[in-house]
Design brief:
493 residues, Rossmann fold, TIM Barrel, 3 domains, 6-stranded parallel sheet, 19 helices
């Protein structure tokens, strides 16, 4: 068989970094890890091509070459995936769909011949076996059964053009021990945290390193610290040893706020090369935290938690939500104040949405307050539920948050707050031509012609005088802020 692995284009979203990637000469954030993992399960005699429409084009000759197309994606890629499936069907290809989008919404995507749902380690081998017998079924699914991560194959990194991407991606664990009612992670992957072996992780990193990769690696786990014991006693010590002779490789991940309670774990993560962690903070309102069952965030000083992680050497990126039933008009100013005081430069603020499969979705359905599907776009400013707050007031308050936190002055003030707190990790790293090119582009586009030019130069001067070792981070955050402002301005308009 000749197989196309197709990844739909992302719209211009908060996490697409489209307005920032051009500064570093890249076209995509990271390769489609799910499709590369599925490629590792294919028969060795099959021919495979990856076409990621975020970094390249799907050409007529690719469609003419292929017998079959595997399409994967997330909810935010819904419209692009539908167009992609339609194009494959016009070319006469058999289309197989999988990944989070199809697991949650396959009934709404016309033209797919076979859908392989849930975790591919469970369902994809059954599809392959049936296909080779000529007996493939329309749907393959597993309910309430989760994959053993130890059988997950080595992703086929050679299929991706690493030169096009800013980062690589690696998955160490799946599942989350918590039960936030708006989150679909547990409905898709369960509460029990399942991990790959340390040997698997090292093999994946070895494969990236052998390909010449010397940049950032994003551990795409839902909650990296779900199994602290294995991290402390096995994985993190091995990662620290592995990185010892590989300057330039750094790690980032996602974790829950209780990471701030474990100084030893934070120190080990920093020693292993982690410098950034995304945390779902959601809201400083205790009533809203109780409402959404965000128990891990309750009864805490969340600003102090963030600063404790920053001082340990972990830059905190934060997720925030407005539109809970308990939210009143004061929530918008409280969110702005929290974000500014915490020094969270990368603050993703969205309206509450109810993805399919979540407890929130079921509750809104029972109350007759559900209106459509979640968009999957974190800062689009839409919601698929009928809020308790007046919708016009909610939209006005939401736009005011975005207008404030990503205006040049508040954003650059927040960056300085971060740099004051942040213990810059001592990472042996060589300055590359890409780094120098990014600096020059930032000087030209932001420092000379950008609306943020005054704040840009104030930040560089402040950093040179007070935190000279953090100049690379300051420039990176200036470039990221340019992207966030562009995206937020689109939604404000």
């Amino acid at each position: 068989m000749k197989v196309l692995l197709l990844y739909p284009e992302f719209p211009d979203t908060f996490w697409s970094y489209k307005h920032a990637l051009s500064f570093v000469g890249k076209r995509g954030t990271f390769p489609p890890l799910g499709l590369l993992t599925v490629a590792g399960m294919l028969p060795p005699e099959w021919e495979v091509r990856l076409v990621d429409l975020n970094v390249g084009r799907l050409r007529a000759r690719d469609l003419a070459w292929a017998d079959m197309a595997f399409v994967s994606g997330m909810i935010v890629q819904r419209d692009a995936a539908k167009r992609l499936v339609g194009r494959c069907k016009e070319a006469g290809l058999t289309v197989v769909g999988g990944g989070p989008l199809f697991t949650m919404e396959h009934e709404e995507i016309a033209g797919v011949d076979h859908v392989v749902l849930n975790e591919a380690e469970l369902t994809f081998p059954r599809f392959l076996a049936d296909w080779q017998r000529g007996e493939a079924k329309p749907i393959y699914a597993e309910e309430d059964v989760y994959a053993d991560m130890a059988v997950s194959p080595l992703p086929r990194w050679e299929l991706a053009d690493r030169r096009q991407y800013h980062s690589m991606a690696l998955q160490y664990s799946r599942g989350c021990p918590f039960d936030c009612d708006f989150c679909n992670i547990t409905s898709l992957l369960g509460h029990k945290v399942r991990t790959k072996t340390t040997e698997q992780v090292v093999r994946e990193l070895d494969a990236m390193s052998a390909s010449g990769w010397r940049g950032n690696v994003f551990f795409v786990d839902d909650n990296f610290i779900g199994n602290k014991r294995h991290l402390k006693t096995d994985l993190l010590p091995r990662l620290a040893a592995w990185r010892a002779d590989k300057p330039g490789i750094t790690f980032q991940t996602e974790a829950s706020i209780n990471l701030a309670d474990d100084g030893e774990l934070m120190d080990q993560m920093v020693a292993a090369g982690f410098d950034t962690v995304f945390v779902g903070i959601e809201t400083p309102e205790s009533a809203a935290l109780a409402e959404c069952n965000k128990t891990q965030n309750e009864h805490r000083d969340l600003v102090a938690d963030v600063k404790r992680m920053q001082r340990a050497g972990l830059q905190v990126q934060g997720g925030f939500i407005v539109g809970f039933d308990s939210d009143g008009p004061s929530v918008f100013r409280r969110q702005i104040d929290f974000i500014q005081n915490s020094g969270i430069a990368t603050a993703m603020v969205g309206l509450l949405q109810a993805p399919k499969g979540t407890r929130l979705y079921r509750r809104m359905e029972e109350e007759g307050r559900l209106c459509g599907s979640a968009s999957g776009d974190n800062v689009e400013g839409t919601t698929n539920i009928v809020p308790r707050m007046d919708l016009d007031l909610l939209h006005r308050g939401y736009r005011e948050i975005l207008r404030t936190i990503y205006a040049p002055r508040p954003y650059y003030q927040r960056v300085r707050t971060l740099l004051r707190e942040f213990r810059c990790p001592r990472v042996a790293r060589h300055i590359t031509l890409t780094d120098l090119a990014a600096l020059w582009r930032s000087v030209y586009r932001l420092g000379l012609f950008g609306c943020e030019r005054l704040e840009y130069w104030k930040l560089l001067a402040w950093t040179l005088l007070r935190r000279p070792t953090q100049i690379p981070l300051a420039v990176t955050l200036a470039i990221s802020g340019h992207h966030f402002r562009k995206v937020c301005e689109q939604h404000i308009r």
